[in-house]
Write a structure and sequence with these properties.
Helix content is 33%, strand content 26%. The longest helix is centred in the N-terminal third of the chain and has 18 residues.
């Protein structure tokens, strides 16, 4: 399948009388909007084609499901009342928009030089980001949302898969619950992994659906981590950052892998 065929397949699958579909040739992106409320979702075709090459029709099904869920959510006036247990933080890169298409300001906090923390209300099969209008309508404060979200993310499971390369240990958290990257906000988890590491602890959130820890003991470890994070970043549906972080003294510091290399004598 090529880009043109992928576009045609998606347009056919997403055809609805109440939706419009526009193709942005410059960005290789489809924009699907609800005609009545003039809100919608974007699907970037190049990353989707890369994913299709790996998982075939599953990539298309996921994209269609994402659009259907997103547009359905936009049609509803979502209430936060009695939904404290459904409020979670969502990590995004600093290039992620801080306003909705219709100009509503999203609730977010700065995190690192590469990342920001947005807040969401989980609706079961999807979540929607919380904006300032939503806070005002539901009489919530920003501080209350922050506290509830951070409490909830600490309650999520931490099942890690482990792999070793040249004496370096890599740990992967990938539950596909929408909040894998969000677990980087769980300070107790970071401290636990720091205590476990024999070398330098690196942490990465290349996209929404993975959190990577790396116990780095040599230059090969940095090489492997750099390649790994970049590959995840290019393949993720919601990419965040291709830069890993070094975790020291309770702080996350974005780092270029080459900067970690030590001169050989």
């Amino acid at each position: 399948m090529d880009l043109h065929m992928l576009r045609e397949t998606l347009e056919k699958r997403l055809e609805r009388p109440e939706w419009t579909i526009n193709y942005d040739k410059e960005e290789d992106r489809l924009r699907i909007e609800n005609k009545e409320i003039r809100k919608g979702a974007n699907v970037a075709l190049k990353p989707l084609l890369t994913k299709y090459e790996r998982v075939k029709d599953e990539a298309i099904e996921e994209a269609v499901r994402y659009v259907e869920i997103t547009l359905t959510a936009m049609e509803r006036d979502i209430s936060l009342e009695g939904r404290d247990k459904d409020i979670f933080p969502v990590i995004r890169g600093t290039s992620f928009p801080t306003e909705t298409k219709d100009g509503k300001k999203l609730v977010f906090d700065e995190h690192t030089a590469e990342t920001r923390v947005f807040y969401s209300i989980d609706m079961g099969n999807y979540y929607t980001l919380i904006d300032e209008d939503m806070l005002e309508r539901n009489h919530y404060t920003r501080k209350a949302i922050q506290e509830v979200a951070l409490f909830n993310v600490r309650s999520l499971s931490h099942s890690l898969k482990e792999d070793q390369v040249a004496d370096n240990t890599f740990y992967f958290l990938n539950t596909n619950d929408g909040y894998d990257a969000s677990r980087i906000l769980d300070e107790s988890l970071l401290e636990k992994m720091k205590q476990k590491a024999a070398g330098t602890l690196a942490v990465a959130v290349p996209h929404q659906d993975v959190l990577i820890f790396a116990d780095i003991k040599n230059d090969t470890g940095y090489d492997v981590l750099g390649q790994m994070v970049f590959q995840f970043f290019t393949q993720g549906r919601n990419p965040i950052t291709a830069l890993p972080f070094i975790y020291e003294n309770g702080e996350l510091e974005p780092t270029f892998i080459l900067a970690q290399r030590k001169p050989k004598h």
